[in-house]
Sequence to fold (373 residues):
Amino acid sequence: MDDEDVHFADEAPRRERVGAAFVALRAELEHLLPGAEIEHIGSTSIPGSITKGDLDICVRVEPAAFTAAERALATRFERNVGSDHTGSLASFVDPTAAIPTGVQLVARGGREDFFSTWRDLLASSTRRLAAYNALKRRWHSRSHTGYRAEKAVFIERELAGARAIDAWQRIPADDYERHMSEVGQSAALRALFTQTYAERRPRRLAVLGCTTGGDLELVEPFTDVVVGVDINPEYLAAARRRLSAKVELTHGDVLDVELAKAPFDLIHAALLLEYVDPVALFHRIGGWLAPGGACSIVTQEVTPDVPPVTPTAYATVRLLDGCMSLRSEDEIVRAAAGAGLCPAARRTARLQSGKVLLHAVFTKSPAPAAGGP
Fold:
């Protein structure tokens, strides 16, 4: 199959037929594996997707029941020899089914137990689903091998972003603020924001990843529009208590939220690129910036022998271990250029821990002069 071309079509015309096939096979699987969790996954389970038209089913069992469940499924289905097989994942196909059917057996909580999560992530984000559909359209009538390779990279990137969001939502505001103060990052980040804010004097400002709103306390009256965005509702509640009603606070993923107050003269994002796709974020920033506007980015540089998360007494912050992807300066500049943003300023700040912060400012081209070419 890997040497064949792959073909896609809209999910909607296949929905009823595939749904009926799932209901019938679920009943059979429930009889074969009492107590197993059986779910319809894959693109035919997601309205608005494009699909190969097959039925994908995930069977989740407790780790202790995995081996017995695998033996039971092998009496009914053929093994999918083209898929991975581990101690917590076994793949099967049903060659007798009228609709191409795959069954993924996973151990609950195991490394491969992401199929249902991935389905839910696609169903909950129009941005993510549109990007996935676009990927498929690029590979329509092309190599199945190439499609699977790009698909794997895309899924892992999106799952990593979801893991980061989950980690951030589990770090209490008090732990976050005390950790950042103890390691000296609060003061360093505030100094970098203060400098850019004073240089740019924006009338319209957005801060992405505003956390508990400390930097937004510095906003002067000449800034008419102030918007803060964060993924953690507890952080935003803390920000609301410390900030004036003038500041509009928005809860959500920066890759999905809509900012009705755009365009902005300055968009600031500190220690955010470590957790999101730089290309996707800069694309959004480019769309939100006014002509001539500036984007201020702070990232943590890769520093030998310096851990990405500085150890402190606040254990919840360690949840970010494994969720961070430190970006090179070249990667950041390329992503910004892809969104039409040009480098305008660069500075660094070294903390006592040895950690180095890169502060880069990018600008969007001004609007053409009236009557120009």
Remarks:
- The mean pLDDT is 94.
- The CA atoms of residues 117 and 261 lie 32 Å apart.
- The radius of gyration is 24 Å.
